[in-house]
Amino acid sequence: MKALFVLVFSICFASLVFAQAPLVAPEGALAFPTAAAGISAYVKTDQKIVITDALANAFYKIEDVSDNHILGIVEVETIVSKVYPHVYVDTEGWMVAFFLAAEPPALIMQWSGDLNTPNAAIKTTLEVALEQIAKAARIPLPSVSFYDFNHPSANTMLILLRILPSPGKKNMYIKLPANYALYSVSYFHYGCNFYVWPDEDETFSTTLKIGGALVSKIDGYNEVKYNVNIIPSRDFAVNKLYEIEIDYSHGGAENGSAGVVFVLIYRTP
């Protein structure tokens, strides 16, 4: 992925992490459920893949298998939650990890590090799923490409990440040019607090706002909670500057964090 600087405007003191990935359709016919798939990551290896028991055992659940392909669900664990992308593999060397068309693309965020010091590096859960399958197949993983089967005309994916490892508030600003076509906006917002002390209030609260309007609010007690949702395209337009604000607070405890990732899928000229 390469950083994209012309579309994102940030005026806060803490760092804003973002990455851009081109969306390119895989070449060649796949025995693949294209109608059911959404955002995907894929590779085409230069060697045949053998459907073995070891490969099958890397799946959390197998949905379809034959002599020349296997399709199933892979469990990927993050510090916030477990996610379950689908993965397709065939003997011609194709490996495709994907979320279903109805699932928010923001599920691709691989929250890493730990809940007190979350990692600000952007990596996707789809890449992790492919790494797990490639390891089981005993083949090196080539460079990963991305594609959105839900929006074939899209050619770019932008990932915006904000993390608050301590109480506070952060903002980020985004405006897409008028000649861009925006297809999808989704977010993954989480908050947590872990601190057991008799005289301390262990509750936490985190909010996510767009243009001052509340989009997500999470409250909890000694736990991790999260919201993952799609924002209707009518509520996020091109050629308009949006302020995105995340706030995090807790009742005196020292352990915990909050974060949000936005995933935008669009077409550039």
Low-confidence stretches: 1-15
Oligomer: single chain
Largest sheet data: 6 strands, antiparallel
Number of strands: 18
- Please give the domain count: 1
Mean pLDDT: 88
- Cα gyration radius (Å): 20 Å
Written account of the structure:
The protein has one domain (8-21, 35-267). The strands form four sheets. It has a six-stranded antiparallel sheet with strand order 4-5-8-9-3-10, with helices on one face. A five-stranded antiparallel sheet has the order 1-12-17-14-15, with no helix packed on it. Strands 2-11-18-13-16 form a five-stranded antiparallel sheet, with no helix packed on it. The chain is built from two helices and 18 strands. It has helices at residues 53-56, 125-137; strands spanning 8-9, 17-22, 37-44, 61-65, 69-73, 76-77, 82-83, 86-90, 94-100, 145-148, 156-164, 168-174, 181-193, 203-210, 213-221, 224-231, 242-250, 256-267. With 269 residues, it is mainly beta. Helices cover 6% and strands 45% of the residues. Strand 6 (76-77) and strand 7 (82-83) form a beta hairpin.
List the helices and strands and how they pair.
Elements: E1 8-9, E2 17-22, E3 37-44, H1 53-56, E4 61-65, E5 69-73, E6 76-77, E7 82-83, E8 86-90, E9 94-100, H2 125-137, E10 145-148, E11 156-164, E12 168-174, E13 181-193, E14 203-210, E15 213-221, E16 224-231, E17 242-250, E18 256-267
Antiparallel strand pairs: 1-12, 2-11, 3-9, 3-10, 4-5, 5-8, 6-7, 8-9, 11-18, 12-17, 13-16, 13-18, 14-15, 14-17
